[in-house]
Design a protein that fits this description.
Layout (H helix, E strand, L loop, with lengths): L3 H16 L5 H31 L12 E2 L8 E2 L5 H4 L4 H18 L20 H13 L5 H17 L10 H11 L7 E3 L6 H13 L7 H9 L2 E5 L2 H13 L6 E4 L14 E6 L14 H6 L5 H12 E12 H5 L3 H13 L1 E7 L13 E7 L8 E6 L29 H4 L4 H8 L15 E5 H6 L22 H27 L1
Parallel strand pairs: 3-4, 3-6, 4-5, 6-7, 8-10
Antiparallel strand pairs: 1-2, 7-9, 8-9, 10-11
């Protein structure tokens, strides 16, 4: 958990950008990502040098070799050592700016084939307007203690949260506690291959990696599992280069060495070669969009003929999941009850041909302040042979934060999130997430017999089919109205007569007073 002091340090850096005229939060985040990557290269070299001194063995991958670096022909060479963070951070602002712009950034581009993270730096450019700002930002980042993975990850997550709080480009940010809930519901295993086909800042992949660390520590100590964790387990795709850089850095700072974070339009024909490649999908794909048929892979259109991105992504999830693979994805409510042929057919496929496990209805304020759309978490397993006996529904009414634009936490930190314990009835009314997880784990047990008036319940497949595969919770939830006891008619009439007599007497008394 990031401390108040660290938040203040990050806030100060962010304020430096804004006061210098850089007000686009994504540009701020991109520049911070470049600088953190540069700082990380120096730290990597320092660790390698310490290990070499301790063991007497040479450094396997020298980041800053002996000799000089020449960025382009005609530009004077400078020692590689000058490009290290620990050396240029002490320069005066003008000299620092010239060195970073003319040497360090070209050096980043030269290293694009060295690591999976570095490839996203191919087009790195310094957009800070002057040396004074660069010097202040370098000083600020140098003062933040980012020596361990947890602190690095928390600091970067806090930086990312400022994208959403700014109210700009916030659509890239799924609330962290909702991501954590979805990961807890899916409970990733060390041998899973986790994919987010619309990865953005890689929040889902980061949360899945943290879940593995916390619940399966052997995945990081067993050589074969560790190799899988660092190189094969996490797959993220996006077609926004800025998001790829930010997402890759997010994974790196959370300790995943070589995730596959790749430029890709997940719905395009050219990407149809990864059928049945992944065992777990975690995603909040873009919706409310529409594509031309020519832009979409034919095998997706074969599943559902539609131009709507929210339906095409669901078809894509089914295509890339392995049999037995499972998914937790956010969908707009329209997917659950839409009346078009494509909507109905996709829901039929999920219920009849696959195994639809559950629907968690989210309150409309979850994505505020930048969107008030009503959404749900859809949970399903790919079987290709059916298996839906009943569908579990949960009516999530409170997620621990106010549902207005401020999204203010309603409880103490230890009472927030899906893994909070010991919540009272009053606290549960403000944070339903732990209850969602508890009831989900019992969805094939006592949940089956819950009344439709409860916050969660199960609906048999036959009933869903009878209702045109409508998956909106309001179709099945029963509402109990409080019974009001009314007095007998004679009593009501008597009361009215008594009231009338009081009014007549009161008027007479008032008239007497006025006459006097």
């Amino acid at each position: 958990m990031i401390t108040g002091a660290l938040k203040s340090q990050v806030d100060a850096i962010w304020d430096d950008f804004w006061s210098s005229g850089i007000s686009n939060p994504l540009e701020v985040m991109e520049q911070l990502t470049y600088l953190l990557f540069i700082k990380g290269l120096d730290e990597r070299q320092t660790r390698a040098e310490a290990k070499a001194n301790r063991t007497g063995n040479p450094i396997d991958d020298v980041v800053f070799p002996e000799g000089n670096f020449t960025p382009t022909e005609g530009v004077p060479a400078r020692p590689y050592a000058d490009l290290r963070w620990k050396n240029f951070k002490n320069l005066e602002p003008g000299e620092m700016y010239s060195l970073v712009d003319n040497y360090v950034f070209p050096f980043l581009q030269e290293r694009t084939n060295k690591t999976s993270h570095a490839e996203h730096m191919a087009n790195a450019r310094l957009s800070l307007p002057k040396g004074g700002l660069l010097a202040r930002v370098v000083d600020g980042l140098s003062e933040i203690p980012m020596t361990d993975r947890d602190t690095k990850g928390d600091v970067y997550e806090y930086m990312l949260s400022k994208i959403a709080s700014s109210g700009t480009n916030g659509q890239f940010r799924t609330p962290r506690h909702i991501i954590q809930l979805m990961v807890e519901l899916m409970a990733p295993e060390p041998k899973d291959t986790v994919c987010d086909p619309a990865s953005g800042t890689c929040g889902f992949l980061v949360a899945a990696s943290e879940y593995i660390r916390d619940n399966h520590p052997s995945a990081l100590t067993t050589p074969k599992l560790a190799e899988h964790f660092h190189n094969e387990m996490f797959q993220g795709f996006d077609f926004d280069a800025t998001m790829l850089r930010i997402g890759s850095m997010n994974m790196q700072l959370h300790g995943v060495e070589s995730p596959n974070i790749t430029y890709r339009d997940s719905l395009a024909e050219v990407n149809s070669g990864d059928a049945e490649a992944y065992s777990l999908i975690l995603a909040n794909p873009p919706f409310a969009g529409s594509l031309n048929y020519e832009e979409v892979a034919d095998d997706l259109l074969a599943v559902v003929k539609t131009k709507k991105t929210e339906l095409l992504f669901l078809a894509q999830f089914l295509r890339v999941l392995k049999p037995g693979g499972r998914a937790a994805v956010i969908v707009p409510d329209g997917v659950l009850f839409g009346s078009t042929k494509a909507h109905k057919e996709l829901r039929r496929i999920l219920v009849e041909d696959q195994k639809l496990d559950g629907i968690v209805s989210l309150p409309s304020g979850v994505f505020k302040p930048y969107a008030g759309v009503s959404t749900a978490i859809m949970l399903f397993t790919k079987t290709n042979s059916g298996g839906t006996d009943h569908v579990w529904f949960y009516d999530l009414q409170a997620d621990g934060q106010s549902l207005d634009d401020k999204r203010t936490p309603l409880l103490a930190d230890d009472k927030l999130g899906p893994t909070a314990t010991g919540l009272s009835e009053e606290e549960h009314a403000k944070n339903n997430l732990p209850d969602v997880l508890a009831r989900w784990n019992d969805r094939d047990g006592t949940e089956v017999d819950r009344e439709r008036t409860a916050q969660s319940f199960c609906v048999p497949k036959a009933e869903i089919a009878k209702n045109d595969y409508d998956l909106s919770i309001n179709r099945y939830k029963e509402i109990v109205y409080d019974e009001i006891e009314y007095a007998a008619p004679a009593e009501i009439i008597a009361d009215l007569e008594a009231l009338e007599a009081e009014i007549v007497t009161g008027l007479a008394d008032l008239k007497a007073m006025l006459d006097a």
